[in-house]
Amino acid sequence: MFSRSNPAGAPLIVIAGGGIGGLSLALKLHAAGIHEITIVEKSRFINPEVGAGLNVLPSAMNVLSELGLLSAVTGAGVAPSTQTYFTAQGLPICATARGLVLAPSGLPQVAIHRGKLHSILYGAVVERLGKSCMLRGAKVVGYRQDEEGVTVNVVDNTTDQPLPSLHAHVLVGADGIMSAIRKQVLGRDEGLPQASGVTLYRGMVKAPKFLDGVTFCSAGTSLHKLVIYPIAEVPVDDADGDAEPKQILNIVVEVPDISSHLEGSQPKKVDCDQVLRRLDDGPGGRFDLPFVDHRELLRQSQNLFEWTMWDRDPIFKWVDGRVVLMGDAAHPTYPLGSCGASMAMVDARELVALLTKHGIQGEGGLGGPH
């Protein structure tokens, strides 16, 4: 188990990255009785508007349930009952059950705004661990280890000026696809992530419910795809004086892009007409869905962004002594198939289970390659 002989005020565990994975890990550690935690996060402020819609799979909802956050997340999102596939002209192909419809005795799948989910996790961290557990506006750039623990090198995220080092028993790299910790764990520079040849355009809009209000709609082909699903119910008071029930819809357009390349880490805002032209320029023909006007939804979307899909080769070493990777730092995935956030939350649960079971094995660190 964990030794409590670390210097006064020093954390047992440093988490690099305060995203969904890092915050989930902090909460699971706290629930396991490990409270000496420092989260190093690049952003100085939490912005609940950052990101777009995502789906939390039942496996990750189980983690949220263990943390006492099930009702908060389900109340802030929409639980889809069906995923239905259509042609570009709206002809149904097939439908699959989701969440509670698929497993009535289990947990739901929840579609939710990424920023809202992040805010719920952040609020729980502040309430349970206190604001002082977070070092904001900073990033981890490296580490060194000895028999006493791991020294974590930290710099200001804006100026790159060195900040006081942190000393801990364990360092967890939850710092995403551009992870500096991953580079040191591997002992080599992988370079920039590889462009996948796929581009997503994502936006959100307040609109009347379509179909039954709980359907995840996917239309088109694997090369040119349109995805629409609700991520929040709009309270009646916020429905613009219209008695018709409304929701926040997440809209995704997926197209091939052989010229995709990495231009920094941020998505860029795009013109709606450009997106529509690219969507219709596919083998399935012009999109024309009879049950929803996707063109009008895209035009009304206030934040339509282009996201280039990046990838990294799989790695078979996630552990270096007292340092371990999780989430996109260990196994980055495209924001497709509801994998990224859900896998990070499951990582948090499994990592805490292993740490509390096996503890830290002296100079052997966390032990084993995984």
TrEMBL record:
Tell me the superkingdom of the source. Answer: Eukaryota
The residue ranges of the FAD-binding domain are 14-185, 298-358
Q: Is this entry keyworded Oxidoreductase?
A: yes
Keywords associated with the record: Monooxygenase, Oxidoreductase
**Which positions make up the signal peptide?**
none
Supply one GO molecular-function term: monooxygenase activity
InterPro entries attached to this UniProt entry: FAD-bd, FAD-dep_Monooxygenase_BioMet, FAD/NAD-bd_sf
The name this protein carries in UniProt is Salicylate 1-monooxygenase
Organism annotation: Tetraselmis sp. GSL018
